C-alpha cells in the first residue's frame, strides 16, 4: 500500500441525522486521483485503536478538496464525525479502479442508498461535466439529502422502474446488497438491455486483495471488490 496521505478538515456538516459530510484539504494529486468509484482507507483515532481503517468513497470537490460521507455506525465512524475544522485525518488512497461511463452516455440513471451516496454523487458530477443528463433514485428517507448534497441539475426520482430504465442509456446502482439486489430484479423484469453496473457494499478491510474479506459472487466466480471491482455487471452478480 502507498504511503499515508494527510487531509486537513475544512468543514463538517451533519446532512442528515447520523450522516456527516467532511470536506478535506488534500494534496492536489489526491483530489485529482479521486475519480468516481475510488475510495480511501481512512485511519481512525490518534493511535492504533481502532486498528483497521474505514473504507469511504471519495468525491473530488475542488482542486485540492475531497468530500467524505460518514454514516455513524460505530466507534470509528463516530470518531470521524467528531472531527472539526483544522483537525488532521490520515488515509491511504484513493484506491480502486475509476469508473468509466459507457461511450456516448447521454442519460445516466443512478440508484442506491446512503452507503453508496458519495460514489453516486461523484458519478453525477462526472456525467454532468461530460454533458449528460442525470437522474437519481434514492429510498424515500434519503431524498431530503438532495437539496444539501446533490448538484442542482440532478433529477431525483421516486423509484427505480421500467419507465426510468427506458429513459436511461446506462445504470449504476451503488449501495447495500439489498438495494443492488432490488435493482437487479427491476432490470430483469423490465427486460432492459442498457449497460448496467452494480457496486454492492462489501466489507473492505485491507483494500489490496490480501484478506479476501470483500468477496462478491458473480456468474464468472468469486471476485474481490477492492481489486476486481468495485463495479460489476449487474446482470452477472449472484446472491447466495
Ligand atoms: S479488502 Fe482485503 S481482499 Fe479486498
Could you characterize the architecture of this molecule?
By secondary structure, the protein is α/β, with parallel strands linked by helices. It folds into 2 domains: 5-95, Translation factors (Elongation Factor Tu (Ef-tu), domain 3, Beta Barrel), CATH 2.40.30.10; 107-236, NAD(P)-binding Rossmann-like Domain (Rossmann fold), CATH 3.40.50.720. It has 6 helices and 14 strands. The strands form 3 sheets. It has a 6-stranded antiparallel beta barrel with strand order 1-2-5-4-3-6. A 6-stranded mixed β-sheet has the order 9-8-7-10-11-14, with helices on both faces. A two-stranded antiparallel ribbon has the order 12-13. Helix 3 links the parallel strand 7 and strand 8. The longest helix has 14 residues, at 177-190. It is globular. It starts with a strand and ends in a 7-residue tail after the last strand. The site of FE2/S2 (inorganic) cluster (FES) has 12 residues, from loops.
In short:
Helices cover 20% and strands 34% of the residues.
Bound molecules: FE2/S2 (inorganic) cluster
Structural class: alpha/beta
User: In the CATH hierarchy, what is the architecture of the largest domain at level 2?
Assistant: 3-Layer(aba) Sandwich
- State the shape: globular
- Rg over CA atoms, rounded to whole Å, is 17 Å
The major β-sheet equals: 6 strands, antiparallel, barrel
